[in-house]
Every structure is written in structure tokens, then in C-alpha cells.
């Protein structure tokens, strides 16, 4: 069943990137993660739910967990938790990290707008917490650069 954040129905037209219209309200086109393989000359990572368990272990491109209220999974799979532990990945040999260093105003996400009472176009208390979090990030990234010596944080 479709809800305010469900990305499984085409409320903006065709689900293809080439048309400029993506499915559902989460985006109207590519996100930053979609540009990475394109710039690197790699194929787009396949959606995890289209792969068998064996294929998930052997795919050379990684997988797209894309659970943004897609209706496919209630929450990100446990495998995604490894990505929040940069020191763990560093110990495995990674030296280049792409970090999303700015969280969008989550108070403007349809699910929050519909679920919370508010007097403005967005839920401002959520946006204030996001702004606080974003304000803390520069210091955290500076500390992370010191811990992960020899790494490139982009």
C-alpha cells in the first residue's frame, strides 16, 4: 500500500533516469550515489532484492540497499551497519572514504510532515536537530582524519 514516502509507485512518471522522472517522492532523478559509478565508468549497483543470496556475495559492484521508504524493507539490512564504522573499514585496508557530510532537512520529508503536528511547511524541531548534527560534523571529520592516517575523506 502506498504511503506519503512510498517510492514504489510512479507519482512522477517513468522510473527511468533518462526521462528525468524517477518513481516516488524521494527524488526526481539521480542522487549522489548514482553519479559515483557513472563517473568511475562502472555499472550501476543492482538492487539487493533482485539478487540471489549467492549473487549478493559475488557481485563485483556492490549492491544498492535503497530502502528509502520503498516498501520493500522496514529498515536497512544489517550489512549496511558496517558502513558506519569507518575505523573497522580502515583496518580492512580502505583508504578512500566518501562521506555525506551534510544531512538534508529531514523535517521536510513527507513522512515527518504527515506524522507530526507543525505550523510551518516543515517540522522545524526536526530541522533544528539536523542543523545541530550538521554543526558537529566538521569537528568529527577532523578527528576522523587524525585517526585514519593516510586516508582521503571526500
UniProtKB/TrEMBL annotation:
GO biological process: lipid catabolic process
An MF annotation (GO) of this entry: hydrolase activity
GO cellular component: extracellular region
InterPro entries for the chain: GDSL_esterase/lipase (IPR051238), SGNH_hydro_sf (IPR036514)
Record carries keyword Lipid metabolism: yes
Keyword field: Hydrolase, Lipid degradation, Lipid metabolism, Secreted, Signal
Residue ranges, annotated region (Disordered): 1-23, 51-76
Highest rank taxon of the organism: Eukaryota
Protein name per its UniProtKB record: Uncharacterized protein
Bias kind Polar residues: ranges: 57-73
Localization per Swiss-Prot or TrEMBL: Secreted
Protein family according to the UniProt entry: Belongs to the 'GDSL' lipolytic enzyme family.
PANTHER family attached to this UniProt entry: GDSL ESTERASE_LIPASE 7-LIKE, GDSL-LIKE LIPASE/ACYLHYDROLASE-RELATED
Organism expressing this protein natively: Gossypium raimondii (Peruvian cotton)
Amino acid at each position: 500500500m502506498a504511503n506519503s514516502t512510498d517510492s514504489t509507485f510512479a507519482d512522477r512518471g517513468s522510473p527511468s533516469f533518462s526521462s528525468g522522472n524517477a518513481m516516488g517522492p524521494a527524488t526526481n532523478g539521480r542522487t549522489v550515489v548514482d553519479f559515483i559509478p557513472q563517473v568511475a565508468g562502472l555499472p550501476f549497483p543492482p538492487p539487493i532484492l533482485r539478487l540471489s543470496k549467492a549473487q549478493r556475495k559475488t557481485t563485483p559492484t556492490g549492491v544498492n540497499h535503497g530502502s528509502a521508504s520503498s516498501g520493500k524493507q522496514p529498515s536497512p539490512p544489517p550489512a549496511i551497519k558496517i558502513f558506519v564504522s569507518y575505523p573497522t573499514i580502515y583496518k580492512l585496508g580502505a583508504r578512500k572514504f566518501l562521506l555525506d557530510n551534510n544531512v538534508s532537512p529531514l523535517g521536510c520529508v513527507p513522512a515527518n510532515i504527515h506524522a507530526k503536528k507543525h505550523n510551518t511547511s516543515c517540522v522545524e524541531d526536526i530541522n533544528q536537530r539536523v542543523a545541530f548534527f550538521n554543526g558537529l560534523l566538521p569537528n568529527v571529520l577532523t578527528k576522523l582524519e587524525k585517526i585514519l592516517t593516510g586516508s582521503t575523506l571526500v
